[in-house]
Amino acid sequence: MRAHILGYISPHPQPRPFSTLSDTAPEITLSARKLMRRFGNLQIIHDVSLTLRRGEVLGLLGHNGAGKSTTMQMLTGCLLPDSGDIEVCGIDLLRQPILAKRHLGYLPETPPLYRELRVDDYLTFAARLRGIENGKVAAAVAQAKRRCGLDAVGGKIIATLSKGYQQRVGIAQAIVHNPEVVVLDEPTVGLDPAQIRDIRALIRELGDGSSVILSTHLLGEVESLCDRVEIMQQGRLIYGDTTAALSSHGGEPGRLEENFIRITERETAAAAEVHTIAESDK
Amino acid sequence: MIRLIAMRELRSLFTLPSTWLIFAALQFVFAWFFLARLEAFLEVQPQLAQLANPPGVTITVAAPMFQTIALLLMMLTPMYTMRLIAEERRNQTLPLLLSAPLAERDIVLGKFLGMLAFLVALSASVPLMLYSLALGTSLDHGLMLANLIGLLLLTASFVALGLYVSALTAQPVIAAIGALAALVGLWLADIGASAPDSPWHAISPLGRFQNFNAGLLDSSDALFFVLFTGVFLLLTIRRLHNNRTYG
Fold first, then answer.
1. Is A227 part of a structural domain of the chain?
2. Nearest CA in chain A to B92
3. Is residue A162 in a domain?
């Protein structure tokens, strides 16, 4: 999968056969079916269904306001859908939220940092919050810090860190409990190129052991990170395929940006046409 | 989980230098007030001693002291409860709690107990000062106990109301003003109502504290505080749940 793009072999190249929770962890780690959500009279999310497999990095691509963040809030239990089902590792998120959320790590658009705390204290709190046993907390925090390159700043107050480091702390809290599913909402927004490079490397590493779903409106990010891409527009998933397939969509390989724009514009035109027909029917 | 949330609240409070400053300043105010009451008592004590059944040191020093602490806590509690949920909203840290494997009940109870523990620690010096009188005289332990229980229940009701108002908004300042307005409003309605059977007396926490302050343990007063606190905690849990429903 990612081997296409990055030229290295994923540790889980072959899909493992489906198994139940009591056996080993299931192959599909996150599945959402027919999610609908409205705010007041405005339908924000229309019939969104997606699945995520272990070891896969899925990019949710779309313009600003396409509904990416709302979808991610629903996938992590921060927002309830009006209808639809979400399963995390085979556990229904809406019926058994506490059990299901043990397998989830979430970095919202703004990292949820208690800025007055030290990095170590904050990560310890995050680890305990996710139900890690007391004896294993220190090791989990140390591992998360190592993976996110935070070893040198453990004793610093979060408010004194640069934005890039704060973003890393945000990612560290999402992975401190080694979740099966990591949901990252625009993880590289507002960072400088060096920081973006570091965080992308971290996300690639995360994709080896867990499933990662990340939202972005940066096409380069999808190209360099994701195995699969779903394009979202006006609350609908309008295209879903492997990143390589999107790049060569319409027989023109390596033209990700043009293909993305073509797909979204086509959908906008189609939606406008439907709207016109609906109006004339009235 | 409840303890974890409570400890986080305390840790965040004590990392702020302003908490320590206010903590210290309040100890000074409490001590000053205590000494002033004690001095006034010592001045009139010779005259009091001539009475047939003179009021003791507990009723002349401790009871007014508890009354003052209750009023101070009424104004102080909203300043601390304002942050509890409103600041999480403003700083967008609420998703950390909402996406974690814990129930809304745990979040609300954790924050409530953390804040209650803080306010208990803040006013703990008052009973210590009062009990120091036991070195020189005998105290009315029943009156002291009634006041301590009353003050704890009163503080719990203030915190629950402040927590609920904090859950309604994303602006801590609005939460503080809202909770202060509600508490002072209830208090003013209570002292302003002249009829002895006015319902305002029944629903004002400070009004309900008067019996405890006089050394009277009335189960209906205790029940009032438990219900008052419980209702506002339930409303807060409901409000947090609505957060998921309405965004």
1. yes
2. A112
3. yes
H-helix segments, chain A: 3-6, 68-75, 97-101, 119-129, 134-147, 163-175, 193-209, 219-225, 243-247, 256-281
Residues of B at the A interface, defined by Cβ within 8 angstroms: 1, 4, 8, 11-12, 15-16, 91-103, 244-247
Residue among A141, A134, A125, A101 nearest B9 (CA): A125
Which residues in A lie closer than 8 A to residue B247 (C-beta atoms)? 39, 70, 73, 79
Contact A114 B8 (CB under 8 A): yes
Q: What is the pLDDT of residues B54-73, one digit of tens each?
A: 778 888 888 999 999 999 99
Q: Give the closest-approach CA distance of B84 to chain A in angstroms.
A: 12
**DSSP code per residue over B204-246:** -HHHHHHHHHTT---HHHHHHHHHHHHHHHHHHHHHHHHHHHH
* Residue B247 vs residue A201, higher pLDDT: A201
- State how far the Cα of A74 lies from the Cα of A5, in Å rounded to an integer: 30
Angle between helices B219-246 and B205-213 (to 10 degrees): 150
A141 with A272, same domain: the answer is no
A117–B4 CB contact, under 8 Å: no
Q: Which of A131, A152, A178 is the last residue of a domain?
A: A178
pLDDT band with cut points at 50, 70 and 90 for residue B77? very high
**Are A188 and A90 part of one and the same domain?**
yes
Q: For A64-91, how does the pLDDT look when each residue is reduced to its tens digit (9 = 90+)? A: 888 899 999 999 999 999 999 999 998 9
Give the pLDDT score at A19: 41
* CA atoms of A171 and A163, how far apart (whole Å): 12
Number of separate domains in chain A? 2
Based on the fold, state whether residues A96 and A132 are members of the same structural domain: no
Looking at the domain assignment, is residue A137 inside a domain? yes
Find the chain A residues whose C-beta atoms sit closer than 8 A to any C-beta of B.
39, 70, 73, 76-80, 97-102, 104, 106, 108-110, 112-117, 121, 125-126, 128-131, 157, 173
Q: What is the pLDDT of residue B6?
A: 95
The closest CB to that of B92, out of A79, A108, A130, belongs to A108
The pTM is what?
0.87
Residues A94, A189 share a domain? yes
Residue A72 lies in domain = 26-103+182-282
Contact A129 B96 (CB under 8 A): yes
Give A259→chain B minimum CA distance, Å: 34
- The whole-number average pLDDT for the span A174-188 is 91
Whether residue B99 and residue A128 make contact (CB cut-off 8 A), yes or no, is no
Judgement on whether residues A164 and A209 belong to the same structural domain of the protein: no
Q: Which of A159, A178, A197 lies at the terminal end of a domain, its last residue?
A: A178
State yes or no: pLDDT of A250 exceeds 80: no
Q: What is the CATH number of the domain that holds A89?
A: 3.40.50.300
Verify whether the Cβ–Cβ distance B95 to A76 is below 8 Å: yes
- What does the block give as tokens for A263? 């797909």
- The reply to whether A166 and A193 lie within a common domain is no
